[in-house]
Hints:
single chain, mainly alpha, 2 helices, elongated
Amino acid sequence: MEIRLVIFLALVSVTLVTNTVLIWFAYKAFAGFTSRVTQTLTEFERSGMTKAWVGTMQSAAEEALRVTETAKQKMAECDPVLQRAQQQYTLALAKVDSRLEQAGNELSDGARKMRDIVSKPAFKFMSFMGGITRALNAMLEDDGRS
């Protein structure tokens, strides 16, 4: 029983030492990382070039804001003009559409009349020829039977 207790205490000691060493390494790693980040930020703050760059970016952002606002105002001014132009184009397209539809109907009527003018005599001629053909066939059959 005493050996089991000694083995248990030895394993607990090894685990405790291992965890302590791991925590110490993690602490050192985070401490080094933090000091490097702090050093980089300090250099960034002290650098005149960085301050100039930040100032330039700020002035560029302000200029972009002004340009955006101006464009927004111009678009708001143009909106009624664009709506009016859209309405005018809509009316003009409706007129053109109705005129084209009317012209199409007139062309269809003209084509129908022309077809009727051409086809009526042709139908009459074909009916006449059909009658003659039937009469000739009837006469030939009568001659063949007699």
